[in-house]
Structures are given as structure tokens and as C-alpha cells.
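[step 3/7] fold_predict: job queued, chain A
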Amino acid sequence: MMVDLWLGACKKEADCVFLLPNVPILPVDVGLSFLTRPSASVLIELNGNHWRKILTIMSKLIAPRYDSWKIFRDVQLFDRVGVAFSVDQLDDYKGLVFIVGNTFRDVWPVADCAQTIGDSHQAFVHLPYVWCPYLDYRQFPNVLIEALRERILER
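[step 4/7] structure written:
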């Protein structure tokens, strides 16, 4: 496993970064061009429904228009989004950070002043940080995606 694996837009270009606990299966012949501009369809093909859900939720959260999230996921997601897999990769990053799941909560706890979004499923926002559930519909349903999207687009 590559500890410093980074997918998508670099820190200087990313509108936001998702800090994920699980590294996807990558193509055998992975090169720098794939890491900087990954193919959503290749990631989904190699990792199945699990990564389809991850990429879909990312897209629904940040697509410029909610009704175009699918096209955004398949064509533009990694032009605008970076994906990190360890906290130390975010040292110099100043943009919006989604801290996904509970894996990183010990080292990056939810801020006491964070706003709670949602009811039975929750995310916590203290911009530029968003602590959110794992990117799976059982934990992160559309109602929470829409409420969180509305909150972060206010910034």
C-alpha cells in the first residue's frame, strides 16, 4: 500500500479534499497520469459498487449543479477534487476538507464549535472542515447529502 497515495487534483488546484480511510485497488500499470487524473469508470470497474458509491456521494456533494452529478463524476470530479489517505498529507492544504468516517477522529476530532447537520445520520461542519459519515448510502443517505451540500455551498 502506498502511504502517500494521492488521487486527483493536487493541493494547489483542488477545490476540496476527501480524507478517506481505504485505498482503492489501482490498475497494475498505474502511472502518475492515472493518479493525477484517475478514471472514475476504471476505479469503479476495479473496486465495484463500493467505489461507485464513494465517487457518487463525492459528486453529489460538490457538483456545480446537483442534477448533473453523474456527468460531473464521470468527467470532472478529479479535476476539482483531491483524495488523500493519511492526515499528514493535508498539512499545507487550505481548502475544504471532508474527514470521512471515524478512522481519523482520534487524530482529527470534531471541533466543539462544529455545526451539526442532519438528524439520524449526521455530519459536522466547522469550515473549512467537514466530518462526515463513510461514503455509503446506509450511513450517508441523500437527505444528508442534500443538507450538507446546501451548507457547504453557502461558504
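[step 5/7] annotate
The chain has one domain: 6-153.
Helices lie at 32-36, 40-47, 49-62, 69-75, 77-80, 142-153.
exit 0
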